[in-house]
Amino acid sequence: MIELFDYLGNKAVSWVKYLWGISILLYQSLKAFFTSQKEGQRVVTDVIFRQILFTGVEALPVISFVALLLGAIVIVQSIAQFTKFGAEEYLGQVLVLVIIRELGPLLTAVIVIGRSATAIAIELGNMIVDHEMEALKVIGVDHLRFVVAPRIIGVTITVVCLTIYFCLVAIIGGFIVSRFIMVLPFGVFIEHLLSAATIGDIFVCFLKSAIFGLLIALICVFHGLSVKVSSTEVPQVTTRAVVSSIFFCFALNGIVTVLFYM
């Protein structure tokens, strides 16, 4: 029993140190981004847009495919079940609950983690192994401003935009796909949806996506910068970044849901 408490205590301490390290990284990066002089601002802006292009625009095909499948499945299953009991008016509530509140932000975050966020950890890890970070420091370039902050800002903005796109494609695209299977007037569909959706639901969707984007970027940057010397560390820190990102996204998704709806 004593060994168990010691183990749990050590784990708690390590998690606190981990969260503290991520918080310090966020503070230092945003401070370097907003308080530094304007020299090189065009370069920083270019890095942000490149990150948005890679994380967001190039991910649209897979986001669209997953959103269409999810929307079609949810809509077809909901209509099939509700028509048995004459409860079609609850369709909008199901769509808001499943897509806007929960799966929209969460699945978008998971796709970004698997497709784009891992590339950040690998890129930063390889930069350390190849001594590129040292070269930046030698020539007087602040890596927090030119490397870290643009990726954090770019990923956060992108996850919010992708979440909005995911929800729209899942609802509208899913309805179009389901038209080949079930007949439901578009006006009735939109009426049920608008009657169920509230400002609070949209706010929670925005909040979750912003938190997920910020966490994903921070965790992957943090692990990428933790590489010391060897290139064999890069896949290890990348794996830890993926696991930690997924864990925190699911945990915070539950916390936000409980806080706002329980």
Task: List the defining traits of the structure above.
about 260 residues; mainly alpha; about 85% helix
Overview of this protein structure:
The chain is built from 9 helices and no strands. It is elongated, with a radius of gyration of 21 Å. The chain has one domain. Helix 6 packs across helix 8. The model has no long low-confidence stretch (mean pLDDT 84). The chain is an all-alpha fold and 262 residues long. The protein starts with a helix and ends with a helix.
Q: Brief overview, please?
A:
The protein is built from nine helices and no strands. With 262 residues, the protein is mainly α.
Spell out the blueprint of helices and strands.
Elements: H1 2-35, H2 41-55, H3 60-85, H4 91-129, H5 132-138, H6 143-178, H7 186-196, H8 199-225, H9 233-261
Helix pairs in contact: 1-6, 2-6, 3-4, 3-6, 4-6, 4-7, 4-8, 4-9, 6-8, 8-9
User: Largest sheet, if any?
Assistant: none
DSSP helical segment count: 9
Structural class comes to mainly alpha
Catalogue the unreliable spans: none
* Beta-strand content: under 5%
Q: CA-to-CA gap between the ends?
A: 35 Å
Overall helicity: over 70%
Shape descriptor: elongated
Radius of gyration: 21 Å
Instruction: Return the domain count.
Output: 1
The average pLDDT is 84
Q: Write down how many β-strands occur, each being a DSSP E stretch of 2 or more residues.
A: 0
Order of helices and strands: HHHHHHHHH
